[in-house]
Q: What sequence folds into this?
């Protein structure tokens, strides 16, 4: 190749095009296409691992749905046997405490109010939220004129301590002890 | 060509035969230049077709299956080089691996092939790749841009720079 030739525009490209690229080896065609056919055939066969994974997923979802159905039907059955609806434990406890410091009728009223309030909220109330609502309700009653809470707490400072610190179990125990003591003296 | 892409996406073995016949030689030469070995180029070519077969559903959305095959081959070559952790070997003195003329009886043709192999070896990889895809793979600038992931303007600039650099090499080295 003469270097002067390259000064002509397009000469280098012509020189490049003069050469013939070596083709792929003949035997490569067969091996590539056989491998491709094998790959295509393999992907058409059912994949057992995928099927098992799918079956496991379906079973998991079905078991979750069945679980929900069984829990709901159990709740309905219990409601039919035991009454209209099971009361949340927190409300039952509140009722017990209020019964301890007042009487059964007031406790049931408070329980009904709390139950109505807990149904009105969209999300289940936390313990703190329930306590806040209870306190608010009691304050409202106090403002309406029902001064039983103050009267009771003034009468019984020990119970008041339990009440204000949120130790309901302690309040119940204290109430039981007091009842036993009064029975003994009687 | 869209018909070919559709048949490929459906897993038609005849479509893969057709694709192989349409581009395997060009692809093999391109891979030779990228990898520096005909054996490695054969292995990567096979890997390329296997990858196309495995992910054939993607081919349904491909406008130009041949340019797409070059893209896959380019990625496979990069993966191969990183997996084997080696640089491509030099082409100087090994023109017989690239050009038919290097093994013929015509001494002028042999010399021309040797000189071009030396000149291509002196070019940066990005420039020799554009020359390879444009001249030997026969792709358009738009297709080269698709394969390399560059804007067509940049590809054209690189091509002109590669040609002028080859000219310089020929003159400077008195090839």
A:
């Amino acid at each position: 190749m003469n270097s002067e030739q390259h000064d002509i525009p397009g000469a280098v490209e012509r020189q490049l095009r003069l050469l013939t690229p070596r083709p792929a080896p003949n035997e490569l065609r067969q091996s590539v296409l056989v491998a491709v056919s094998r790959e295509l055939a393999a992907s058409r066969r059912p994949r057992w691992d995928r099927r098992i994974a799918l079956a496991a997923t379906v079973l998991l979802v079905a078991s979750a749905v069945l679980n929900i159905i069984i829990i709901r039907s159990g709740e309905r059955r219990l409601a039919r046997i035991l009454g209209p609806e099971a009361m949340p434990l927190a409300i039952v406890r509140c009722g017990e405490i209020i019964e301890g410091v007042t009487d059964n009728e007031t406790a049931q009223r408070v329980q009904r109010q709390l139950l109505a309030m807990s149904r009105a909220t969209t999300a289940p109330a936390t313990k703190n939220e329930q306590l806040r609502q209870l306190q608010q309700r009691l304050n409202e009653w106090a403002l309406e004129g029902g001064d039983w809470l103050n009267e009771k707490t003034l009468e019984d400072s020990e119970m008041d301590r339990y009440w204000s610190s949120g130790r309901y179990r302690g309040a119940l125990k204290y109430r039981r002890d007091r009842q036993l003591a009064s029975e003994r003296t009687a | 060509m869209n018909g070919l892409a559709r048949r490929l996406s459906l897993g038609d073995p005849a479509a893969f035969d057709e694709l192989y016949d349409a581009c395997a030689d060009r692809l093999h030469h391109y891979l030779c230049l990228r990898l520096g070995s005909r054996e490695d180029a054969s292995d990567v070519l096979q890997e390329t077709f296997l990858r196309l077969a495995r992910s054939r559903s993607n081919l349904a959305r491909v406008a130009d299956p041949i340019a797409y095959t070059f893209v896959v081959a380019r990625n496979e070559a990069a993966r191969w080089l990183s997996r084997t952790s080696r640089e491509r070997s030099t082409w100087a003195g090994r023109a017989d691996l690239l050009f038919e003329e290097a093994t013929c009886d015509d001494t002028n043709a042999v010399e021309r092939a040797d000189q071009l192999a030396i000149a291509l070896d002196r070019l940066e990889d990005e420039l020799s790749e554009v020359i390879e895809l444009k001249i030997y793979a026969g792709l358009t600038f738009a297709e080269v841009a698709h394969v390399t992931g560059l804007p067509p303007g940049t590809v054209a600039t690189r091509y002109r720079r590669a040609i002028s650099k080859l000219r310089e090499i020929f003159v400077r080295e008195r090839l």
